Structures are given as structure tokens and as C-alpha cells.
């Protein structure tokens, strides 16, 4: 019986491909640190059918940024807030750029 076409999920930044152990190892931290990021609502891992946490590459980039800030001495709650604000700023800049491109100044 042929398997359904799934595409290449590992190229999808949002595909929850990594277990908590693998994710922690990839970014050089502990599973407890990843759970703390979830408790702080910075990242919300998806759950496998068995209830295990699964992380995407996008979430791992966010977690790695949090780890950088914490390693520099920033409290985890503050690191999470900084990352959220950085993300909001990036999104606002992207929207602003799109609006400027769609509505060039008239002279």
C-alpha cells in the first residue's frame, strides 16, 4: 500500500520534528530549560499522540536566542519578554516595508 505524500516535512520550519531531549541537545541546554520556556509561554511545543513534547526548528531558534540571553545573565522571564518584543518589532518593520512598497510617496 503506498504511503500518502507528506512532502519533505523536515524542510518545514514549523514541523514538530524534535523530541525534548533532541531539541535540548541541539541547542546545548536541558529539557527543563525548554519546559521553562513553555511555562513562560515563549514557545508552545506540540504534543505527539503519546503526549510527548515535540519542537520545530522555528521554536528551536527562539529557544536558542533565549538561551543566549540567559547565558548573558538575563532572567528567563525578561529574556522571554525581550524575544517577544524583538519578534513584534520585526513583524512591524516587515508590514511597514510592505506598505511603503505598495504606496510609494508621490512627488
Automatic annotation (TrEMBL):
Swiss-Prot/TrEMBL keywords: DNA-binding
Keyword Magnesium: no
DNA-binding recorded as keyword: yes
Domain of life: Bacteria
Domain HTH merR-type as annotated: residue spans: 17-85
Pfam families associated with the record: MerR_1
GO MF, one annotated term: DNA-binding transcription factor activity
Protein name (database record): DNA-binding transcriptional MerR regulator
Species annotation: Nocardiopsis metallicus
Lineage: Bacteria, Bacillati, Actinomycetota, Actinomycetes, Streptosporangiales
Amino acid at each position: 500500500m503506498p504511503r500518502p505524500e507528506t512532502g519533505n516535512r523536515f524542510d518545514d520550519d514549523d514541523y514538530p520534528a524534535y523530541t525534548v531531549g533532541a531539541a535540548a541537545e541541539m541547542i546545548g541546554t536541558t529539557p527543563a530549560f525548554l519546559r521553562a520556556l513553555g511555562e513562560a509561554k515563549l514557545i508552545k511545543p506540540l504534543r505527539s499522540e503519546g503526549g510527548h513534547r515535540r519542537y520545530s526548528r522555528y521554536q528551536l531558534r527562539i529557544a536558542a536566542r533565549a538561551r543566549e540571553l540567559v547565558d548573558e545573565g538575563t532572567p528567563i522571564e525578561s529574556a522571554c519578554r525581550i524575544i517577544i518584543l524583538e519578534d513584534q518589532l520585526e513583524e512591524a518593520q516587515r508590514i511597514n516595508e510592505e506598505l511603503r512598497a505598495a504606496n510609494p510617496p508621490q512627488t
